[in-house]
Amino acid sequence: MNLPPYSIFPNIIGDKVSLRQIQPTEVNGIVEISYYNAIQATAVEQAIEMQGKINKDYTDGNSIHWGIIDNLTDKIVGTCGYYRGLDKGAGELGFVLLQQYRGQGFMTTAIALAIEFGINNIGLKRIWAETTQDNEGAIKVLERLNFFKIADLDDNGIEYEFISRRYHS
Ligand SMILES: CC(C)(COP(=O)(O)OP(=O)(O)OC[C@H]1O[C@@H](n2cnc3c(N)ncnc32)[C@H](O)[C@@H]1OP(=O)(O)O)[C@@H](O)C(=O)NCCC(=O)NCCS
């Protein structure tokens, strides 16, 4: 296992999108998709405070949170990361796109990069995501990337796990 924090924050460059550390100046553009402990920010100050907590979780080795960057414009279109389980060799993925960037394949591409990093660099033995039965967009992203439903949870929740031959070999 190679848990965070790393000597250099891992920026991952893909063809369509890149994953990189969110800059303080970018937070005002992602207020509506800033969450901490499932609470959504309603003001930029709150989003900045949340970003501070997220950075501390990274420094403490408990999570890694990336901004998703559209390589064509260099603009942040969403966020994703691993937010729980790292100490047990597992990673719970979370992901969200700004509304105007949905439906263009940004998240599927970003999560593919995050999975690759999780397996090859962190050394995760398991990757999972939790969503709800009515979250069609999230389910499509997960199923497109070879996640399979493994459990029904309380309150309409569902748990998906990434299954790959390479990962289990
Ligand atoms: C979940 C969420 C990220 C999905 O967003 P999305 O835009 O549907 O996902 P992608 O960026 O991967 O785009 C996929 C869509 O773009 C289309 N697309 C266009 N170009 C594409 C490409 N190159 N690659 C893949 N898909 C492409 C796909 O056909 C798909 O459209 P469809 O749903 O009509 O089939 C978004 O709805 C969201 O942020 N929701 C709120 C947060 C949330 O629920 N998070 C999940 C909690 S675990």
TrEMBL record:
One of its GO terms (molecular function) is protein-N-terminal-alanine acetyltransferase activity. Keywords: Transferase. The keyword Transferase applies. InterPro entries: Acyl_CoA_acyltransferase, GNAT_dom, N-acetyltransferase. Pfam families: Acetyltransf_3 (PF13302). GO terms for cellular component: cytoplasm. Residues 17-169 form the N-acetyltransferase domain. PANTHER family: GNAT FAMILY, PUTATIVE (AFU_ORTHOLOGUE AFUA_3G00765)-RELATED-RELATED, RIBOSOMAL-PROTEIN-ALANINE ACETYLTRANSFERASE. This is N-acetyltransferase. The lineage of its organism: Bacteria, Pseudomonadati, Bacteroidota, Sphingobacteriia, Sphingobacteriales.
